[in-house]
Amino acid sequence: MGQKPNNKKGVSEVIATVILIAIVMAVGAMVWVVVNNFVKEKTGDTKSCLGLFEKVNIENRYTCYNSNSKELQLSLSIDDVDVDEILIGVSGGGSGVSFKIKKDISAVDNVVMYPSRSATTVKLPGKNAGLTYLLDITSAGLTNPPDLVEISPVVEGSQCEISDSLDQIDDCSELAS
């Protein structure tokens, strides 16, 4: 009778390969979990700001400086996005001021709604809407006409990057003619 061939060596190589593949997959899964958690942690605050490009804007056509009344007329528009508030920075001649306009109606120092001027409260435009505001430059502490306006939306409690800016502010009297 013939002897059976000994295939134990072939079987042990297959088992070793399967074990090696399992170890590599386990290490890969652990690395993926660590990296995924790290990325989620670092980008969690900015996720709410994604997709805001060109959706929260300064309306250049309606934004101007009235040199007679020393007021900045600032027009903002919001497209189809939810914004909690907008941080607005205005600078001129090396000094600057900032203020927030919130979704809920609130008082903002030196800012009134246009054209009313008498209302002491302001509010943020809603979705797909725009509103115009008047900032009393002198009362706000600026001695020179504004030369830069920047806006940064706040979404879900996170302040986003500057979404729009205007560095050439026309005189309102020139726009009227």
Write the layout of secondary structure elements.
Layout: H1 8-43, E1 56-58, E2 64-66, E3 71-78, E4 85-92, E5 95-102, E6 111-113, E7 129-136, H2 137-140, E8 148-155, E9 158-159, E10 164-166, H3 172-176
Antiparallel strand pairs: 1-3, 2-3, 3-7, 4-5, 4-8, 6-7, 8-9, 8-10
Question: Could you walk me through the main structural features you see in this protein, from its secondary elements to its overall organization?
Answer:
There is one protein chain. This protein is α+β, with helices and mostly antiparallel strands. The chain folds into 2 domains: 1-43; 51-176, Immunoglobulin-like. It has helices at 8-43, 137-140, 172-176, and strands at 56-58, 64-66, 71-78, 85-92, 95-102, 111-113, 129-136, 148-155, 158-159, 164-166. Strands 1, 2, 3, 6 and 7 form a 5-stranded antiparallel β-sheet that branches. The longest helix is centred in the first third of the chain and has 36 residues, at 8-43. The model has no long low-confidence stretch (mean pLDDT 87).
- Beta-strand share of residues: 25-35%
Instruction: Determine the CATH topology of the largest domain.
Output: Immunoglobulin-like
- In this structure, how is the largest beta sheet organized? 5 strands, antiparallel
Query: Average pLDDT value?
Result: 87
| Overall spatial form | rod-shaped
For the secondary structure, the number of strands is 10
For the CA atoms, what is the radius of gyration?
A: 30 Å
